[in-house]
Every structure is written in structure tokens, then in C-alpha cells.
Design brief:
Elements: H1 22-31, H2 61-75, H3 107-121, H4 148-166, H5 169-176
Length: 185
């Protein structure tokens, strides 16, 4: 059986793996040749102004900014053609109170946000009372553990313990005042 071209009913050439006639085979070969590189456009697609240098798309400075903003919105799953919402930077991002100078929220919203984060992390809120056993006084500082009295007592005990550790063994024996065997009558 004679092979025929798949496009027309001419006899197929023997040197082609697919059934193609000479004309269609040559057409296919020509298509695979490398083309001359296209010269990039030097003017903006939108308005015809000179193109922004160093940018791969044919847009001027003004239109490139709009295009890039739309691309960012599209990549974030937002509507690229929606009008840009102007954010008032003097107000809290959650309510309309004035915001803190170093953040984007007011003091109350920041506290609520931090408490929410702690709840999600499973952290128990710290007590506001002294952690020393038998003392129910409020803490001296919010980040500390003890009231002022218990804190001072602990500091004194630490100083005593550290000075005692520095003493020589002879001085420790004198301090203990251990009676010797031959001194006892």
C-alpha cells in the first residue's frame, strides 16, 4: 500500500517519519528554522510615548506604574480594576481611634490583638499578684514575679548566699561555731 500525505492525497516521501508529500514536508522543515529576533517596540502601547528603558513590556513610565500595580493586585487574588482604597494613616486599622505613633493600631486594639494571639497559642494570662507563697500583694511591675517586699527579701538572701559562697572554709567553720570535742567538759 502506498503511503499518502496526511494533508493532501499526494504520495508521501520515504524519508519522512510522518506521511507527508514533498511540499508539506519542506513546509514543515521551514517552520522549524530560527526566526530573526523581533525588535522591541520603542513606544508605549497605550499612548505612543517613548518606552520606559529597562522594562520588557512596551509601556511608558506612567502606564507601567499602573500595569505593575494591577499585576500585584491580580497576583494577590484581588480585582485589578477596583479603585485603590486610600488608607488614613492617622487612624487605627481596626477602629477609628487615633493610632499609636509606632504602630497601625490604637492601644486598646493592640491589647486585644495580643491577647487573641496568646489565646491562640495556648498561653495562660499571667497573674497580677505576687508569686511568693503566702503573699497576696499586687506585683511591683507587670513583667516581674514578686511584690516590692518579697523582691527585696529575695535580693538580700541572694547577696548573703553569694557572699557566703565566697568565704573560705575556715571562715565558714568559725561562723558555725562548732564546739570541738576537747573543748567540751
Amino acid at each position: 500500500m502506498i503511503r499518502t500525505c496526511r494533508h493532501c492525497n499526494e504520495p508521501a516521501v520515504s524519508y519522512s517519519t510522518t506521511p507527508l508529500c514533498r511540499d508539506h514536508y519542506n513546509q514543515r522543515r521551514r517552520k522549524g528554522r530560527p526566526r530573526q529576533p523581533r525588535q522591541p517596540s520603542t513606544v508605549c502601547k497605550e499612548c505612543g510615548a517613548p518606552r520606559k528603558p529597562g522594562v520588557s513590556i512596551a509601556r511608558c513610565e506612567e502606564h507601567y506604574r499602573v500595569y505593575a500595580r494591577k499585576q500585584v493586585r491580580r497576583s494577590r487574588g484581588m480585582d485589578p480594576d477596583a479603585p485603590v482604597k486610600v488608607v488614613d494613616t492617622s487612624k487605627c486599622s481596626r477602629c477609628d481611634e487615633p493610632r499609636l505613633p509606632y504602630g497601625v493600631m490604637c492601644r486598646q486594639c493592640l491589647r486585644n490583638y495580643e491577647a487573641e494571639r496568646r489565646r491562640k497559642a495556648g498561653v495562660q494570662p499571667r497573674s497580677t499578684f505576687c508569686e511568693s507563697p503566702g503573699c497576696g500583694q499586687p506585683k511591683a511591675t507587670p513583667h516581674g514575679k514578686f511584690c516590692r517586699v518579697c523582691y527585696d527579701q529575695r535580693q538580700e538572701a541572694k547577696v548573703k548566699a553569694s557572699s557566703r559562697a565566697k568565704m573560705s572554709t575556715a571562715a565558714k567553720a568559725i561562723e558555725k561555731q562548732v564546739p570541738r570535742r576537747w573543748d567540751t567538759a
